[in-house]
Each structure stands twice: as structure tokens, then as C-alpha cells.
Amino acid sequence: EERITKSREDWNNKIIPLIEMIRDISKITEAQVLMLSYRHQLTDKIAELKLTVYRLNTKYDYHYKEHYRFYRNGYDMQLHSGETNIFVQSDLSLLKRQLNIIQSHIDFYQEVVRTLDNLGYAIKRRIDVQYEA
């Protein structure tokens, strides 16, 4: 969670100056280069995180099956299906939380990419306005 929070702060600190750069026409080319570079970095990070989510989902499914088997066959008390699911979900809650946190971070990165795309359109518009006058 701390790494994710720091990552979000870092990206916010990169994007805000980039947005301010488009005010000055002499910095437009630098803003374009940075925007495309940041977009590429984020796309790579999204791909990495999606792979992590895939691996964690596979791990979750495996452990869910193992825990379910344990509670149905090897547990001291006889549980009905609903209780078994509750016990298993409780055991795997930390893993599920990790999945949710990573998915939330993917969503954040996707929003930053959308912001960068919008910034690209703003840069184009800024250039159009500058040279129309």
C-alpha cells in the first residue's frame, strides 16, 4: 500500500508540471515528448500489473479449492455450503485484498493514461490556436 501511495504521488507530481508546460508555447515540444514517454511507461506498468493480477487470481483459485476441500472433508465440524464459503473467503481475505488494491492501482494508471491522452489533444489545440493567430 505504501509503494502504491508513493507511486500515485510520484505520477501526480509528474503530470501537474506537464499540464502547466502547455501554457508556454516554447515548451510544447518538451511537453509532447514527456507526455508520450509517460504514456509508454504507464502502459508497460499496466501490463505488468495485469500479469500480477492474473497470477494472483490463479493462486486465489488454487487456494480456494484447497481450503474448500479442507473445510468440507478435514475440518472438525460439519459445515454446510454457505458456512464453508464464508470460512474459505475469510482465510483468503488478505489475498483478495491484495487483488483489489492492485486492480485499484491499474484503474488509477488507466485514468492517468486518459489524462495524458487528453493532454495530447490539448497540446494539439494549443498549437492550432497559436498558429491560427
Any overview of this molecule?
- The protein is built from four helices and no strands.
- The protein has 133 residues and is an all-alpha fold.
- It is 89% helix and 0% strand.
Q: Which key phrases capture this entry?
A:
133 residues; mainly alpha; rod-shaped
Work out the oligomeric state of the chains in this entry. Answer: single chain
Rg on CA atoms, Å = 23 Å
Order of secondary-structure elements: HHHH
Individual helix count: 4
* Low-pLDDT segments: none
The number of E-state strands comes to 0
Sheet with most strands:
none
Strand content: under 5%
Short description:
By secondary structure, the protein is mostly helical. The protein has helices at 2-21, 28-74, 81-91, 93-132. Helix 1 (2-21) packs antiparallel against helix 2, helix 1 packs parallel to helix 4 (93-132) and helix 2 packs across helix 3.
SSE arrangement:
Elements: H1 2-21, H2 28-74, H3 81-91, H4 93-132
Helix pairs in contact: 1-2, 1-4, 2-3, 2-4
